[in-house]
Amino acid sequence: MELTEAPRGDRPFIESYGPGGFRIGGVRWTGPVLILTDRVVAWEHGGGTPLDAAALAAAFAGESMELLILGLGAGPAAVSAAVPPAVREALRDAGLALEAMDTGAACRTYNLLAGEGRAVGAALIALPAQ
Questions:
Q1: What's the average model confidence in pLDDT over 5-32?
Q2: Sheet holding 33-35, edge to edge
Q3: What is the pTM of this model?
Q4: CA 86 to CA 124: how far, in whole Å?
Q5: Does the residue 1 lie in any domain?
């Protein structure tokens, strides 16, 4: 899905998402990604595996952000598998609030908040490849 009017600047912005990956800042990413303050990196998260609280907190340590948007795949079923309390606790200890939602909503929410200049990052699981 193409996202309209993605702001430009020094922040990474999501231009589109779809089965298997994302286009962020003109670069095609396959699989899960982490959007940090000034860059995008591949996220070594295997689909269907539990979130690794320590690894996720460590990936965002030292970043100047207050909120992490977590995109958990497609539809309400992906989000209904609640984020384990250990993940929320590890991120809270790292100074990050967490909002979990399906990946499409996460992409739109990240772009909106980043466009407003908010201190936000994202951890996005790609939609299943067709």
A1: 87
A2: 40-42, 33-35, 120-124, 67-71, 97-101
A3: 0.87
A4: 19
A5: no
